[in-house]
Amino acid sequence: MIAAAAAVSCTGNRAEIKLTLAGAPSEQVVVKAQNLNRYEVLDTLYTDDKGKLAYKVDVRKGDPEFFFLYRNDRRFASLLLEAGDKVRVEVDADGHLSMSGSEDSRLLAELNEEQKKVDAALSDIQNRLDENNLQDLKVEFNKVYIDHYRSSVAFVMKHCKSLVSVPALYEQLQGNALPVFGRHTDALVFKSVSDSLNKVWPESRYAQALAVEAQRRVNEMQLSMKLSEAEARPFPELVLKDRDLKDIKLSEVEAECIMLHFWNPAEPAQKMFNVDVLFPLYKEFHKKGLEIYAVALTSDRVGWGLTVGDQNLPWINVCDPSMNAAALYNLQQLPTTFFINRDEENQLVRAGEQFDGVESIRKYLRKVLK
After folding, report:
1. What is the pTM of this model?
2. H/E element holding 273?
3. CA 254 to CA 66: how far, in whole Å?
4. Which of 335, 328, 346, 342 minimizes the C-alpha distance to 294?
5. Which is it for strands 86-91 and 97-100: parallel, antiparallel or unpaired?
6. Could you give the CA distance from residue 10 to residue 33 in angstroms, rounded to a whole number?
7. Which of 59, 90, 177, 339 could form a disulfide with 351 if both were Cys (CB 3.0 to 4.6 A apart)?
8. Above 70 in pLDDT, residue 200?
9. CA distance 339 to 327
């Protein structure tokens, strides 16, 4: 629907958005809603001859929602609205935004502005980077990042009863390449905020999803701590069949470093992980002593075999229909990656570390495969 002023007809609770765009009569504005991890277009509107429009959206009581306003395909306002909210959004001729009528939306705008400033500061440092000032700018980069991390912790703890803390916890800098809360110990921050939100907003989908993520992170942190504190000892043996039904024993893999990778071939994202992460790593490090022992945890051997063939995966691929490996390695999620290295006595041991992303994996491999 296209209109100068529109209202969504509904029988439930609603929130109202009143927008003023200075000097922008008949300007197109697109309204989008967030549905957990995806965005949905709600409507396309036009301002009146004074640059104004009004719009009402459905918001279930007890379940605040995120909404976004776009102009010329660019987001200019982010809103977090409860049922009954009446928010006023004003954009002056210079593009400066002001907001009233929704404290959560004001905080969300503050959060977005701070992220823009930090991203700009980090980009400026990278643009000034060269061989002569490498170390100095690394120190400067880390200081900007750590200062922002500390202020972000303070922000989410101060506003732990508001759902505005959720996007703050998932904030990514530098084009989604640098998570603000990426440490294992940040699981404690996630858990603290999640506990607070579930007391205030037990019906919120975002609070419920955060509870699941917080528990996942706590499990990861606990497993990582157990592994890092454990003495070096032989890893649990695996003897699994490859596509040719040949038994492949993990302990007999000849490599200086083995990447033990557990995955589910039925998940598209995990199949893309083969292409986007494992292939580049294998190409870079295989000749230096890396081998991948990829364990598919699935009862669908046929589907797994087709995936391995279609993707032409060059490393060791085996399947565990019994799922026994999940218990042996105390897996909490898929995919999960471990590294097994040969010590000075040529004994295979399990590395006491888990890895969250490709850069942490690459850093580790560069350290052990010199």
Report:
1. 0.59
2. helix 268-273
3. 52
4. 335
5. antiparallel
6. 16
7. 339
8. yes
9. 17
